[in-house]
Amino acid sequence: MKNITSILIILGLILLTGCAVIPTGYLPVSNSENEMVYKKHNEFKDISFYRHKAFFSPSPIEIYIGEGKLTYLRIKFKYRGSDWIFFENATIINSESSKVKISFNSYDKETDVLSGSSVVEYIDESLSDYKAKEILNLINSNVDVIKVRLSGKYYKDYVLNESQINGLKEILNIYFKE
Q1: Helix H segments across the chain?
Q2: 117-173 pLDDT per residue, tens
Q3: Residue 86, by phi and psi: left (phi above 0), alpha (psi -120 to 50) or beta?
Q4: Would you give the distance in Å from CA 48 to the centre of its chain?
């Protein structure tokens, strides 16, 4: 019982402070104490994934880098709620109303029903350099508000926090070596 109480206290502190728990196998790419990019290497497939620490906490969007024989980008959209939205596209918009729209096939999307009557819908797919540059231009413009809408039969809007915006910028800048 004491262990459960300790775990609940730790989880509560993580939620209150916004600290991300680093998943098993991910290591910082540098020794800097402020490092935000982490790498996980799969030695059997000889593939590495680079993710930003901002996306180790729940986020409606994540862009990450895959590296094997080629280096490539992936984008992930995720919804968790009490009702299905059946999303089939995502729109990223800034406060100047510049938009990037990404559509995908619903059969590529994963869905799950969780305990406690909540549902999860997510998709993880390749991101073209063209779309990645569009997103980078959108978030690099002189704006402080970036929103994401996941839409289909219904929709859900999210406002990205500063850490998430910086995470997207940093991963895209690393990929494009800017």
Answers
A1: 2-17, 129-140, 162-176
A2: 899 999 999 999 999 999 999 999 878 899 999 999 999 999 999 999 999 999 999
A3: left
A4: 17
CA distance 66 to 138: 22
* Contact by Cβ (8 Å): 59, 121: no
Q: How confident is the model at residue 115 (pLDDT cuts 50, 70, 90)?
A: confident
Tell me if 113 sits within 8 A of 105, measured CB to CB: no
Q: Which residues of 84-115 are buried (b: 16+ CB within 10 A; e: fewer)?
A: ebbbbebbbbbeeeeebebebeeeebeeeeee
Residue with tokens 């998430």: 164
Beta strand pairing call for 155-159 and 146-152: antiparallel
Q: Distance between terminal CA atoms of the chain? A: 51
Amino acid residing at 15: L
Tell me, yes or no, if the pTM score tops 0.70: yes
Angle, to 10 degrees, between the axis of helix 129-140 and the axis of helix 162-176? 130
CB distance 22 to 56 below 8 Å: yes
A 10 A CB-CB count for 62 gives: 21
CB 85 within 8 A of CB 156: yes
